[in-house]
Amino acid sequence: MLKVLVASSKGGAGKSTLATNLAAYYAVEGKNTVLVDADRQGSGLRWCQRRAQHADAVLGLPGTRRDWDKPIPPDAQRVVVDSPAGIRPDEVEAYLDKVAAVLVPVLPSAIDLEATEPFLNDLAGLGRVRRGKVAVGLVANRLKPWTNASQLAVEEMRRFPFPVVAQLRDTQGYVLANALGKSIFDYHSELVRSHQQDWASLVRWLKKHS
Ligand SMILES: Nc1ncnc2c1ncn2[C@@H]1O[C@H](COP(=O)(O)OP(=O)(O)OP(=O)(O)O)[C@@H](O)[C@H]1O
Ligand SMILES: [Mg+2]
Q1: Structural domain spans, the chain
Q2: In angstroms, rounded to a whole number, what is the distance separating the alpha carbons of residues 50 and 176?
Q3: What is the Å distance from ligand 1's center to 11 Cα?
Q4: C-alpha 94 – ligand 2 centre gap (Å)
Q5: Best of 6, 10, 17 for a ligand 1 pocket test (most atoms within 8 Å of beta carbon)
Q6: pLDDT tens-digit profile of 107-158?
Q7: What is the whole-number distance in angstroms between the Cα of residue 137 and the centre of ligand 1?
Q8: Alpha carbon of 22 to those of 34, 80, 114, 130, 172: distances in Å?
Q9: Which strands sit side by side in the sheet containing 2-6, from one edge to the other?
Q10: Residues with beta carbon inside 6 Å of ligand 1?
Q11: Which fold has domain 2-201?
């Protein structure tokens, strides 16, 4: 059972977008998939409810309690945990015994990079991360690749203590799909397929660390 935590100290960086799309990717692949929503805002759970009427449902479970993993069915193959904004490194540490990898979405702006750097440095100091038991990957999110700002931001991210495992572009596709309980992996137009390609390196990286 592969368990992945999506976390960031920064609000609005794309944690729920990343968590729901990753969960849908695995569900579409045929894996029994659970989305644990550790955010009291509950946007992940509501997405699971919307998705329940479609094929490739994802089981949504609340994750605000310490024993969040107890209700996970034993036949679950993939578990994605969405966490709230403002999570502290010691709160992240509480998850690290139970997950194989942490994904941190980062937006391409100086404000976001500056706000995220101390969080990443704290993560790098946690025992299980230091000992290589838990892998941490950065996901550059909402990129507009044709802009200088996005290109520079990705360069900046490469100086952080963890690898950039995916570069996701800004597209309304994520916004529209989420509202319907869907993901970009539920559509097959040429445009959507090009956004699906953005995830290939992330999925490969997770496979390596599972
Ligand atoms: N790649 C993207 N392209 C376009 N819009 C995006 C993308 N990623 C996220 N968004 C939008 O940005 C907003 C914030 O994203 P999201 O809710 O996933 O962030 P979050 O980190 O979970 O926020 P919070 O800290 O409030 O939990 C949402 O409106 C979402 O639809
Ligand atoms: Mg969220």
Answers
A1: 2-201
A2: 13
A3: 9
A4: 19
A5: 17
A6: 999 999 999 999 999 999 999 999 999 999 999 999 999 999 999 999 999 9
A7: 18
A8: 11, 7, 26, 25, 17
A9: 59-62, 33-37, 78-82, 2-6, 101-106, 135-143, 164-169
A10: 11-17, 39, 85, 141-142, 168, 170-171, 174-175, 178
A11: Rossmann fold (3.40.50)
For position 6, what pLDDT does the model report? 98
CA quadruple 50, 183, 142, 137: dihedral sign: positive
Q: What digits encode the pLDDT tens for the residues 131-142?
A: 999 999 999 999
| pLDDT of 66 strictly over 90 | no
Tokens of 79: 């578990």
Instruction: Give the ligand 1 atom nearest the CA of 84.
Output: 27
